[in-house]
């Protein structure tokens, strides 16, 4: 019977950890949604403000600049993640030799 009781503790502990992780991720998702709403609202205010001072061509250039900047930031983060993963894989390979 002692073996059965100890088997439940690791499973229970793991379940608690997974539930904690789920709550943390859910909270992060809610924070991200709120942030997105605020960023969208701020983008609209900025766009309305600068559209008063820029002609159509300048405004299109600005919008293109913002779009490309965002895309490049996303790409940079993806590349950094790939580099981190590659470095981790390299470290594991070196340790296994």
From TrEMBL:
PROSITE patterns the record matches: ASD2
Pfam family, one: ASD2
Recorded family membership: Belongs to the shroom family.
UniProt key word Nucleotide-binding: no
Domain ASD2: 1-97
Compartments (UniProt record): Cytoplasm, Cytoskeleton
Protein source organism: Ranitomeya imitator
InterPro entries: ASD2_dom, Shroom_fam
Coiled coil: 15-42
Entries under PANTHER family matching the protein: APICAL PROTEIN/SHROOM-RELATED, PROTEIN SHROOM4
Keywords: Coiled coil, Cytoplasm, Cytoskeleton
Stated name of the protein: ASD2 domain-containing protein
Chief location of this protein within or outside the cell: cytoplasm
Source species taxonomy: Eukaryota, Metazoa, Chordata, Craniata, Vertebrata
Gene3D superfamilies (UniProt xref): 6.10.250.3120
């Amino acid at each position: 019977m002692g073996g059965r009781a100890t088997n439940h503790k690791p499973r229970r502990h793991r379940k608690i950890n997974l539930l904690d992780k789920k709550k943390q991720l859910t909270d992060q998702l809610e924070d991200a949604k709120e942030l997105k709403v605020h960023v969208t609202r701020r983008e609209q205010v900025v766009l309305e403000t600068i559209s008063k001072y820029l002609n159509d061509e300048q405004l299109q250039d600005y919008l293109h600049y913002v779009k490309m900047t965002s895309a490049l930031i996303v790409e940079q983060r993806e590349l950094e993640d790939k580099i981190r993963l590659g470095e981790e894989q390299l470290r594991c390979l070196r340790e296994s030799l």
